[in-house]
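TL;DR need structure tokens for one chain.
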Amino acid sequence: MRYISLCLLCCLLFSCKQETKTTDIEVPLKENQEKVYPEDLKKVFDAHGGLDRWNNMHSMSYHIIKGDELEKQWIDLKNRRERTESSTSKTGFDGTQYWIEADSTSNKDPIFYTNLMFYFFAQPFVLADEGINYEKVEDLNFDGIDYPGFRISYKDNIGVSPKDEYFIHYHPETHQMEWLGYTVTYKSDKPSDRIGWIKYEDWSKTRLLLLPGSLKWYNTENNLPTSERNVRRFEKLAVSEKEFPETQFIATSNARIVEKMEF
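>> reply
TL;DR here they are.
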């Protein structure tokens, strides 16, 4: 499920509304209540290693590189507890409370930021979370290739920002994910009609899961991607069936508890 809203910096990528025709897809449940996904979306999950393998994993960690900046993240894949460390701050979610230890140069909001980059990175698997609706959308055309896709929306009261939406688009032959569109509803009760775009590249397999090495944010025009704007690279990725120790997500001794979004 979606646990956190999207980054304020990404708001600069938005423009006007995309006219996208959608077809509702009802996702039925088997007798044992196992979720069944649209067939083409299931092929996307399978192209990246499959949901069974993903669901067997309990922990993930990686480094995020943006220019000269380095950030480390540790995530509990089952309940989305998280710890983040950079040169200016340490933040975390211990399953109950959000906390932060930061110097005067940091303006990071731990509630806003928790699971933010993880949710972008751990595509397409996070789009199999509970409480999601799927709709087929028109293909995204870029550089002469038509990428089929789905619109992802959330049921009421799912996560911090249930009115966020995503648009996953995949290669028509390989079913490998190529693009992610998203909307931002930061501190808003209203859905947004402005779509930002990320291109996924440098895929590699870790524990037989195909995950990206770089995420490229794009400028947009008429809610469609035009040219590359910035990039974040992911290194030292580790995924495991083992859980992190409980101490991994506990607040540091100098941290303060945050009860609501601050920025």
